[in-house]
Each structure stands twice: as C-alpha cells, then as structure tokens.
Amino acid sequence: MSFEAFDNIRVIKVKDKREGGEKAFEIVKEAHESGAVVFGLATGSTPETLYREIRKSDLDFSDKTAINLDEYVGLSPKHPQSYHVFMDEHLFSVKPFKVSFIPNGMEDEEIEIARYNQVIREHPIDLQILGIGTNAHIGFNEPGTSFDTHTHKVKLTQETVDANKRYFESETDVPGYAYSMGIQSILSAKKILLMAYGENKAEAIEQTLRGPVTEDVPSSILQTHPDVVIIIDEAAASRV
Ligand code: GLP
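Above: inputs. Below: predicted complex with GLP.
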C-alpha cells in the first residue's frame, strides 16, 4: 500500500479489491467514530468489498442515515437489478440504518426529483462513497453533465449501458434512464471516498487526477473538493 497526494486528493494505492475494501472500511470507521451521521452510498461491483467489511464488523448504523446516489428509472424497488435490492443484499439486511433513502425509479420525475433534493438538503452528507464509470461518471452523472446539477433524470450513455448489461439478461433489459444525485449534491458532502479497481478504470482515474477540470470528465470536479480520498488498485493506477 502506498500514499500519494495529488493537490487536495489523497490517493491510496492497494494491491487489489480486497485490500481496497479493508482500507475503505478504515475510512468509514474513522468517520463513524468521529460522529458522521449521514452516509452517501454507492452501488456497482466496486463497493462490494467495502460492504463486506462493514457487514463483518461490529459497527452499528442503527442511528445513522443512508442516502444512495442513484436508481434506474422504471425498475420497481423489488426488481432484482434495482439498486434497492442491491443495497438490501449487500448491506441493509445485515446492517440496517435508522433510515435509508434511494430514489424511487417508479415515481414521476418531477415529484421524485423534488423529494430527493429535499432529502439531501435535510440530511447533509458527512461521507460520500463513490465508484466511477469507465467514462468517468460519478453516480450516473454522464460526461457533459453540468457541474451545477442537483438530482436529475439522466439518459444513460451507450458506454454505461454496455458496462452495466452484465447484470441483466440482455442489453434491451437495461433501463435507458436513471435518477441520480447531481454533481452539486455529491460535492456538498463533507468528505468523499472514491474507489476504482481494474484496468478498465485506468483512463478515468488518470483524467480524474491529472486532467483538466471539465464537464466532459465528471469525476475531474473532485479536484475542487477540499477532502477527497481515492483508493485504487494497481491496474486502475497503471496510468498515473
Ligand atoms: C454504475 C453506478 C455508479 C458506479 C458505476 C461503476 O453506473 N451508477 O455509481 O460507480 O456503475 O460500476 P462498477 O463498480 O460495477 O464498475
């Protein structure tokens, strides 16, 4: 494991996803111990090892709040590929939070966006967990998304549909839209922890750390946040 500082971003390089989960868990534990109340949570394969560490731990989240980043539009909370089911399976069934919020993919756009923005306003996020898309999206904020966005409805890019179709029976089953916290909602978190593993994230990580801050690379905005930690394995670190 090694540490490097890229301006305000602290980069922790780990051997693999397992070690990444352990390191990420330490950061979650530190936040928990120093009084964090609201945890912003992510889905995807990346946070799986972190959630495994949390499940194994004796940390208690029963007085904490969880706010998830995003959900597919059109999937009910009971759909096996919904992020509701993902969170139940990977975390909440073992570590229940006092309250957990996830966008409702079946709700009308205007109502859901207003509701979720209010949730985020009323529960300022202490620690935001992030994965990253191969195209450098964070949450479902695809390249080109304005840095000013709050919760919004997103049309998924072909690259994201391709990356996520492994979870569905066929590509045509992948929803075309999602509700996502916006870039501003993510930046409002006090601390941000992003994890990335694998060769297919190497370019996105290079652009996040070394590239210009541009809406074409949503994760590049993290360079402007005062407290960001990025955990990457050797493959994801191969270009930095
Ligand atoms: C999805 C999620 C993101 C996640 C990304 C990467 O698009 N909305 O929050 O970071 O996938 O997924 P994975 O961790 O499986 O590579």
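Helices lie at 17-33, 48-56, 83-92, 109-122, 158-164, 183-187, 202-210.
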